[in-house]
Structure formats: structure tokens, C-alpha cells
Amino acid sequence: MTAHFTHIVCLECGHQMPPKAEQRTCAACGSAWLDARYDLPAVRALWEAGALRHREATLWRYRELLPVDGPNPEITMGEGGTALPRLYSTERLYGHQPIYVKDERKNPTNSFKDRQAAVSVTWMRSVGIGECVLASTGNAAVAYAAFCARAGIRLWLFMTNAAPLEKMREVALYGAEVVRVNGTYDEAKHMAAQFAQRRGIYIDTGAKAIPSKESMKTLAFEIAEGLGLVHDHGRPSGQFVAPDWYIQAVSGGIGPLGVMKGFGELYEMGLIDRVPKLGIIQAAGCAPMVSAYAAQAEKATPVSPKTLIHVLATGDPGAAYGLLRAHALAHGGAFRAVEDGDAFRAMRQVASQAGLSVEPAAAVAFAGLEQLLQDGTIQAGEVVVVNASGHTLTAEGHILGDQYDRYILSLNAQPSGAQLSTDLDALAEQVTTVVVVDDNPNDRKLIRRLLQSYKQYRVYEATDGADGLTVVRDRQPDLIVADLTMPEMDGLDFVRALKSDPKTSHIPVVVVSAKSITPDERTFLRRHTESVWTKGDFDTRQLVDHIVLTLGHQPVASPRREAVRTAQPEEAAAQHTILIIDDNPADLRLARRALSRHPEYQLIEASDGREGLKAIYAHHPDLIVLDLTLPELDGFTILDTLHNDRTLRDTPVIVLSAKGLNLNERTTLLRYTDVILEKAGFEVGQFAETVKRKLKPD
Ligand SMILES: Cc1ncc(COP(=O)(O)O)c(C=O)c1O
Ligand SMILES: [Zn+2]
Question: Domain residues for 588?
Fold first, then answer.
């Protein structure tokens, strides 16, 4: 079946070699970048004669253009043949169509890496390889583990500590040997190579290995065949149709490299009329390709990854960058970086509006798509395909915070009428959502606390009008509390935008502002908002009551409850929540002791980075005391995450460090905080004083 695989060409020197999938380096120059070539006219003739018509919808349907005999019935799990649904909700959101998703979640282990694993493992078995080494940021690990299990191949996986435990457990379940490397992914890759060489075990080198890269072409074939079925731009149905854009999040880059080779072959066969433009999206904390492309550099400078999206943490892309750049220069394309926070927002949006639960790495592609649409890079009518994979399991915590699992009904065996109605009132409260839009973090927090000290509402914060619109569209709240004077888009424009959008025009708005209002503005606000409250000049309880009544709930000021309730809002306003993140119990105790004399502080503690991050999203603390060397996620990563989230950016941080900091680290830290205390000289009084100073509202 590999009769059409004719030869191999070295991408560096052009030397030609016989067609052997196991060829690792160029026989002339030693380069590892090789390319498989096929008898394309013969394949075209076969396919046009109807060879594809009766084949199953798996990636093996394009077997003539694969360098491997397959499928092997003992190994295949029906990989490939994934769906290509259209994203109507995203199209409406951005006013662009059509947008398709190549839904790689439907592969055996939920990512496009299953293509690579299926073809590579099938090939390994065919040439008698019984043991394999692989370094992976996570998804390739799961895919290879599953396919190697079926093929009876022993697999050594090198993964970093950043990979989530869920993925490690999954690969261990498949029986792979997991080597956890305490370092970056690039270091893990290096160690895997040395291990393989020393033990004489085959190592899969991803984009450089012929079966691996070739497998990714099947994405292109499926997309073009799929578009041919749904896309009727005057072409007879059943032909191959190329999209205008192929968008993918990139770490090592094997996906787009293979996909572009696939489209290239279809083009050479005359089956499509153009090769798509390439949208390469990276996480901003690990975007060596994006920076290099912007600088028109031929080589990417390696970076040290700082992103929560561990799947995308390849700091050194090597030659893959040059190949992708060459493609973008020849056929068009764009390289973009997106912040983690924007990826998480995109992830929630795609899940809640399009019903697709994609993983953070794929969400990066959607956030990048948003940029390309907004800056006009993708033009009206262009056909866009985005690669999506994975599950949300490993990210739900910091995306949803603590505000999702609140539906608690106390189910008595025989609920009395009164009990049931109390329960249902409570439920109504729990599903009520309020968005507070204010650029002053203290005011935002005050209103949040005020509401939450009386009612179990879900309260989300936004930092200006533009951010407010995003959060409101995202959360569809029951009520909005808005300030008027804000940067970017002020409150009046914000209200105008809300009222002109049929999706948000019905949401009641309560204005709380310090701005003096002109008669015209007052008329406008009277028409479009519920009420206007002047900051510093209202009774907090009246405001809460007004909001609660507007929402149609029981007022909180009923006389019976008054005695218990009255003291609360003032107290709540005076309280400060302080989060201490430190893995050393003795240091935790010390910080706790220094602050416990202040009853107005509510202390929360976390003993590793991941717990710390969860606590940040759950409690929105007023101040964070942060150790730097932490298990799971270090202090630098936490600072980065805070910085990338508009609602958390202003949280004061006191770094409490045990390690001697070098100049570089100190400079990095100073970008986030001006308070760096060393544990060695820790002094209780001075620490408490610093905390007090940082908590003082500006
Ligand atoms: C959805 C998604 N995008 C991008 C990547 C990064 O892939 P690569 O390392 O091939 O660039 C992955 C990796 O698994 C992924 O799952
Ligand atoms: Zn060569």
C-alpha cells in the first residue's frame, strides 16, 4: 500500500533518499529535517476514479499518502474522521462567517495527537520496534500511551512537573513508564534524548519523524473533503475545498507543519485551488515564534515558558519555526500571542455558547481567532477552520472559581410547604448573577462583599466599560452595578452599548458613582437605569435592599432579621481577606501569628501554588503574601497569572522569599510588586506594618 511513497528529500540540502519511514537523518548532510514524497499524479488518478468512496471515515482512508501500511486491526481505534461543525454562536459574536471547528476531541484520547500516535505506533510495530521513548507536554503522552498499550510496545514518557496529575495518572493507567522531570519541557526533551541514546531505544522526535509529521496531513485531507461536502460556492459537491485560514495553537508545531504539507499535496494534485493561510497562536508567556516573526527573524530565540497552559510550553521551537515562517511568507499567515486569562475567557465562551468543552491549549487558538477577526487580518467571508481538542478537566478550577457548584437544596424526606419555599428562595438566590463594573478595586470589592454578606448571589467584577461588556455578554447577569467615571469606555457609553444590544438591553442597571451629573446625563440615566447612587453618600443597607427588590427577592431589612443583620455590612466593609501562600509550615505559622492580632483580617492559607491559585479565584483576597519557591506552580507564575487577569491585577502582593534573589529575578519581581521581604530578616512588627500599609485604600 505504500507503493506511492517514492522517495525522501532532505529539507536542508535537497539530497534524495529511498522511501524508508525509518530514515532519521540525511545521508548527505546529517540534517534531521526530512520530507516524504509521493507519486501524486498516480494518487490523484486513483482518488478520482473513486477509491475513497467506499472507505471508512478514519485517517487511513488516505493511505496512499501515508508512509506506513495500515490500519493494523490490532492497533487502530478508528482514529481520525472527526467532525467539522460550524460555530454559529461565534460567527454571530464577531459578525464573521463561516467558522468551522475541526473537532479533534472525537479522537480516541481527545486530541489530534492521536493521529500521530496511531500512524507512528502502527509503523513501529510493522518494523518490530518494541520499546519507545517520548517527551511530551501532555497530549502526545496520553495518545502514545494508549496506542502503545494496544500494540504491546513499552513506552517511556518524559513529562514535566507542570503536566497535571490527571494526565500522569491516565498514562500510568495505560501502563507507560512515567519519568517526571523537574524542569522545563525543553529540558525533559533533552533528557529523553540522552536516555534513549544511552539505552539504545527508539525515540519519537515529533515533527522530525517521518510517520509523525505525515500523520498530520490527514487533518488537511479531512478538512478539504469535509468542506467539499458542506460548502457550496458554486463547486460540485464531493470535491476537495480548501479553507482560507487554518488556525492552531502551537507549541512544537507538528500540527500545522503536517497540515500545511497535506494542503500542499492536494494543491499539487490539482484538487484544491489554493493553499490556506496559517494562523499560528501561542500563549503570551511562551511565544518565541510570535516574537521572532514580528522581528522578521529567521530563527526563534528560546524563552523560558511562563504560562499556565503547560501543553503549549515549548520554549525552544528549533527549526519548526523557520518552516512555519516560510509557509506564512509564501502563502500568507499571521502569528499572534494571547494571554492565559483571555484563553480561559474564550474557553468558557466556546463551552457556554457553542457547547464545545475544549482544553486550554485549544482555547488559545480561539482567543487568537478573536484577535485576527478584530484586527481585520481575517477578511469578510473568508472560510476559517480552527483545530480544537481536549477536555476541560484540568482547568475548570481556575476558570470557574468557587462560583459554580452552589445549587444546594436540602432535600428533606417530607419537606413541609414552608421549608420547600425557603429552599427554593435560597436556590433563586444562588443562581442570581450580578456584575459590578468599576475601575476602583476597593469600590468593586465593597459592593461585592455588601451583596454577598446578605445574599448568596454570584458576583463578577469588571474593570471598565469595555471589560464590563465582555463580562456581561459572557455571564448574562440578572443585574449590573456600574460606575460612571472609568478609563477606556466610561459608564454612560457602557450603558448606551448595553441598551442598544437586544441581548443585554433588558438587564437592569444600578449606577453607583462619584461623578457629578449634568441635567442631560440625568435624563439619560433616568430613562435607562434603575437608580443613581452617589459614592460615599448613601446608606449601604438601602442600596442592598434596592438591588434585592429590583431582582424580585425578599428584602433583607425585614424587622425580624434586623437584630442579627444590621451590624454586618459595616463589619464586612472593614474586613480584609489576606491569602498566605507558603509551603513551609513554620513560615506559614509565623505570618499567621504576625497577623492574627488583627481581628479585622480574615486569613486564608494555601500550601502550594495550585491551591494558592484556586484560593485567589475563589476569594479575591485584598492582599496576598507570597512565597516564591512553591510546589506545583511557583510564585513567579502566580504573579504572572494575577497580572494577566484584569480583575486581579491590582491586588497588592507582598513577596516573602527564602531564596537569595539574583538581579534578574529581582527586576522581574519589581514589575509586579514593590514589597519583597526576605525570610532571613523577618520581623513580626515590620511585617504587620507593611501589610497594613498595603491594605490602605489609595
Ligand atoms: C489543541 C492543541 N493545540 C496545540 C497543541 C500543541 O501542539 P504542538 O506541540 O504540536 O505545537 C496541542 C498539543 O497537544 C493541542 O492539544
Ligand atoms: Zn541533507
Answer: 575-695
The answer to whether 108 and 121 are in contact (CB under 8 A) is no
- State the pLDDT at residue 569: 41
Atom of ligand 1 nearest to the CA of 113: 14
> Distance (Å, rounded) from C-alpha 354 to C-alpha 370?
15
Helix (H, G, I), strand (E, B) or coil at 9: strand
Question: Under a CB-based contact definition with an 8 Å cutoff, are residues 117 and 144 in contact?
Answer: yes
Percent of the chain whose predicted confidence (pLDDT) is above 90: 56
Q: What single letter denotes the amino acid at residue 108?
A: P
C-alpha cell at 524: 439619560
Q: In this structure, is residue 15 part of a structural domain?
A: no
Q: Which of 626, 603, 610, 604 is nearest to 675 (CA)?
A: 626
Closest residue by CA, ligand 1 atom 1: 362
Whole-number Å distance, alpha carbon 179 to ligand 1 midpoint, is 21
Please tell me whether residues 274 and 334 are part of one structural domain: yes
At position 11, the amino acid (one-letter code) is: L
Same domain, 501 and 642: no
Bridge partners of 333, per DSSP, are 278
Atom of ligand 1 nearest to the CA of 390: 16
In a domain, 391, yes or no: yes
pTM here is 0.74
Of 572, 594, 611, which residue sits at a domain end?
A: 572
Q: What is the pLDDT of residues 106-117, one digit of tens each?
A: 999 999 999 999
Q: Which ligand is nearest to the CA of 391?
A: 1
